Amino acid sequence: WLALSAKLKENRSDADAKAKLDALVATMSREMAHSGLAKEVWDQLGQTKDKGVAKALLALASPASTYKEATGAQDELRRRMSARLNQNQTAVLVGIASRPAMTLMCRESAKGLLAGLCKRLDKAEKRTDDEAARDVSELELLTDFATLFPEVISSSGEPLVSALAKAHAAADACNAEAQLLLKVVHAASGQIAAESKEVRKQLVSTLCQSCCGKDAALGKLAAQCLTTKLLAPALRSRTFATLVSKLRPAIDGKAGPQQHTALTALGVLGKRTPDAFGDDPKELLDAVKGCITRSSGGAAGSQLRARCESQCLAVKLLANEAIGSTGA
């Protein structure tokens, strides 16, 4: 609305901008309980020459606004428009100003939520089931917000990375929390990339540990995070080379959770960042093929199931690497 209004003010004869603005106002008005009044309010907002109104609307629409900035913008918008609106229109304006404002989950909320989680994860094994369930519910909410509005994580890098490290250290006791935190990292990777070198270094270390662990779901999410903007360009090649070298022994080893995690993580890298395998990936890929052709040696029961899982993951890895290397 702000962009179209500014465009129309520059050129009142822009029929295309006017048509798009009218359609947008009609859509937004229909979403309000009193659509007729809402359209009147939007018309008044469009007619005002007060630049403070546009500034307040911009603050309300920005996911990066703090709680104080958002609520302050609501008050400022109501104050500046009070002389142009009647009582009923002012009530609708309050509703319009409340809809986009990030007051439920703003930057301070996200940071406070993660800081509180860090403290509770220090004693993760002593949490009651209800306390653990509450932590998971809060993280599910944070994950949804970070996916839609990653800017809410823009000042939470340190507590986020700390919480992830503690969840990783707590292993099975915090598996659900670790998965959700990894999803937050992936969603807000652009914001976390701007954090300090120390924060990013700790994060990359934890991600690599997850890739080398025994939980394939965590390894997959961690590898996905490593393929984002988190890694500085100058460090990507060295980081991936080190990670691949640490994963290689698991490929040659016994079928089981660690091999499954290694194959899963490498499958992600192969598809998303094929250059992670280096200039000559033949040796690595040959080892992966060995997971498929290697004799089961009379294995039965759980070991046979582990061998079949390794074969499936190896086939998927090779397919992902083929897709990634061709840029498909």
Radius of gyration over C-alpha positions, nearest whole angstrom:
26 Å
Distance between the termini: 37 Å
Largest sheet, described in full?
none
DSSP helix fraction = over 70%
Count of alpha/pi helices: 17
> Roughly what fraction of the amino acids lie in strands?
under 5%
Written overview of the protein:
This protein has 328 residues and is mainly α. 73% of the residues lie in helices and 0% in strands. The chain has 17 helices and no strands. The protein has helices spanning 2-10, 15-30, 35-47, 51-61, 67-81, 87-98, 107-121, 129-148, 157-169, 175-187, 189-192, 197-211, 216-226, 233-252, 257-272, 282-293, 302-325. Helix 9 (157-169) packs antiparallel against helix 10 and helix 14 runs antiparallel to helix 15 (257-272). 36% of the residues are buried.
Spell out the key features of this protein.
17 helices; 328 residues; single chain; mainly alpha
Short description:
This protein is an all-alpha fold.
What is the topological layout?
Elements: H1 2-10, H2 15-30, H3 35-47, H4 51-61, H5 67-81, H6 87-98, H7 107-121, H8 129-148, H9 157-169, H10 175-187, H11 189-192, H12 197-211, H13 216-226, H14 233-252, H15 257-272, H16 282-293, H17 302-325
Helix pairs in contact: 1-2, 2-3, 3-6, 4-5, 5-6, 7-9, 8-10, 9-10, 9-12, 10-13, 12-13, 13-15, 14-15, 15-17, 16-17
